[in-house]
Amino acid sequence: MKKILLFVFLFGCFGAAQAQFKLGVRMGINTTDLNPNDIKILDANGLDRFNLALKQANYGVHGGLVFSFRKNNLMIQPEVLLNSNKVDYTITDAQGSGLVDSIRSEKYQYLDIPVLLGLKLGPLRLHGGPVGHIYINSTSELEGLDGYLDRFEPFTLGYQLGVGLTIWKLMLDVRYEGNFTKFGDHFEFFGNQYQFDQSSARFLFSIGFLFGDAN
């Protein structure tokens, strides 16, 4: 809750700033950059049950509103974006036979709130800043496994760094996103919590449109 209040405070500061304001929309795709080691799942007796591996992090989609505040070449750009992703996991025999028992999919949706500070150099924009992820919903085929519960955190933090190009009122952006939590940290099997050994990272590609006079 404290993190959410921090973001609300930042938004209030932006409203007080006497800067040029524009409202826009943005949408695009994102892909996860991740290659973690397998997770060995234990049963209630502490014995090896199966191995859980990331098979594929599919392309996700995002879209929402852009709030652009600019004074001279400096800019502050909060955004509110709905983000949806799908991940496939492979379940294999824990004894090392390599036998694939099943492939399970998981879909999840977050409300992403990046707050970007940037520099505008003609049509070129350089920006970066924190991003908050508010958990909304998920559907998972892992729920069919014995002992599974999901423990999604309601709010997590990361950061984004990127470059953009403004052509008339159109915005083209490429960003890198890192996160401060481990990928899969919502897994719980037989009362034990698990996570992969890497933090989630994504590349985001988007196109946007700013309303108002072009400049």
Report on this model:
7% of the residues lie in helices and 67% in strands. By secondary structure, the protein is mainly beta. It has one domain (2-210): Porin. Strands 1-4-5-6-7-9-10-13 form an eight-stranded antiparallel beta barrel. It is elongated.
CATH architecture call: Beta Barrel
Largest sheet: 8 strands, antiparallel, barrel
CATH fold assignment? Porin
Proportion of residues in helical segments: under 10%
What is the N-to-C order of secondary-structure elements (H for helix, E for strand)?
Answer: HEEEEEEEEEEEEE
- What would CATH call the class? Mainly Beta
Strand order of the largest sheet: 1-4-5-6-7-9-10-13
Number of separate structural domains? 1
Write down how many β-strands occur, each being a DSSP E stretch of 2 or more residues: 13
Instruction: Give the helix/strand class.
Output: mainly beta
Mean pLDDT: 88
Q: Count the helices. How many?
A: 1
What general outline do the C-alpha atoms trace?
elongated
What does the radius of gyration come to? Answer: 20 Å
Summary tags:
elongated, Porin, eight-stranded antiparallel beta barrel
Give the gist of this structure:
With about 220 residues, the chain is mainly beta. The protein has one domain: Porin (Beta Barrel).
Annotate the secondary structure layout.
Blueprint (H helix, E strand, L loop, with lengths): L1 H15 L3 E13 L6 E4 L5 E10 L2 E12 L2 E20 L6 E22 L2 E17 L7 E3 L4 E13 L2 E13 L4 E3 L2 E3 L4 E12 L5
Antiparallel strand pairs: 1-4, 1-13, 2-3, 3-5, 4-5, 5-6, 6-7, 7-9, 8-11, 9-10, 10-13, 11-12
